[in-house]
Each structure stands twice: as structure tokens, then as C-alpha cells.
Amino acid sequence: MNWTDERVEKLKRLWADGLSASQIAAQLGGVSRNAVIGKVHRLNLPGRAKAGGATQAASRPQARNTSAPRAPNFAARATTASATRTVTRPVGATVVKEEIEIEVTQQPEFEAPANVVVPMSRRLSLTDLTERTCKWPMGDPLKDDFHFCGAESGESSPYCRYHARLAYQPVNERRKAASMAAAARA
DNA sequence: CCCTGATTCGC
DNA sequence: GCGAATCAGG
Predict the structure, then answer these.
(1) Polar residues composition bias: which ranges (predicted)?
(2) Is the CB of A44 under 7 A from strand C?
(3) CA distance linking residue A64 with residue A101, whole number of Å
(4) Beta bridge partners of A83
(5) How is chain A split into domains, by residue range?
(6) Tens-place pLDDT, residues A25-77
(7) Helix (H, G, I), strand (E, B), or coil: what is residue A181?
């Protein structure tokens, strides 16, 4: 795949946003994370932390807004909706009846997660889930457009590769990335 | 094992 | 220029 101006621009934006190389690769499509990293270097984009001082302190991917049109007067309170549903599904020869409680915390509306990469979703409804589908909930559980990611999850995780990362990691994994580069070189 | 970015080097 | 392979670290 060619590095068109468009794709390069997207790369620059996503990299500046603090997405990892693999996330960017997934978003661009058709390239590996190595390709992304290679391109980043070739473009001389600022590494995650390099040049001179090895210690990187200020890595705040959150500081996106410049002229942030922060919502005027929202109650600074997140609403929490929970729904409990009972679902039955076959597991081997038996039928498992389980109660699934879903809690969704809704920020007042803004909070567009530009960092989240979701390669695909099959928009499965609750009853369509199987042992191997990603159970990452999407949308409002109380609305009828609620669905699950449904991507291939494998058998060891309830989520697909990407949602597993979201579920098990604090979103911000990039801490000390380049400390070894300067040090290890001999 | 999963992941991260960095570097090398044949193409 | 490109990116797979490899490296170094978490």
C-alpha cells in the first residue's frame, strides 16, 4: 500500500494523538505496525521520547483541545444506567443460564474517544453472542440499538483482541518507551 | 504470552 | 523509501 498524502496525514495525526503504532496500523489498514514505525522515523516525527534526555515526563495524550468548546452548563455528573438481562445459551451439551448486568457510564455527551480503534463490529444482539464472540457492549443497553462488538474473541477471552486491551489496560500504556534505546546502545 | 517503540538492512 | 526481522524493554 502506498503512502499517499492522505495516509501520511492520518498517520501524523494519529501518532500525535498518542496512538500506538499497531493501533495506527489497524486504523490505516493494509500496513503493519512496523511499517508505521518505519514511516514515523522516516518522516522524522517526534518519537515517543527520544533526543537527549532519556526521561520523559509529560506525555498527556488527553490534552487535545485547543479552543475547546466545552459544553456550557452540563451538570458535571455522569449518569449511570444499568440493565440486567437473563440470557440462555448452549455450552456444550448443557444450557447455561446467566444473568448479565451491564452498567454503562455515560459522560454528558462529548468525550469522543478518538483513541479507540475498533476494526470491525458485527453488531450482534445479546442473544447472538457465542463463546467466541467479543462481548464488548456498544451503545445504550436500554435502547434497542444496543449491541455487542461480536468480533472473534478466541476462547480465552470474552473480548476480541482490541477490546481486551481496552478492558484490561488503563488506556494509557505509553510510559517509558524509549529509555532503553539510548541506554542499551553500545 | 501479550504488548511497546527502535533499529537494521535487503529489497 | 519501504517494511520484515530483529532487538530491547514492560
Answers:
(1) 56-67
(2) no
(3) 33
(4) A102
(5) 5-43, 133-184
(6) 988 888 999 999 999 999 988 877 643 333 333 333 333 333 334 433 334 44
(7) helix
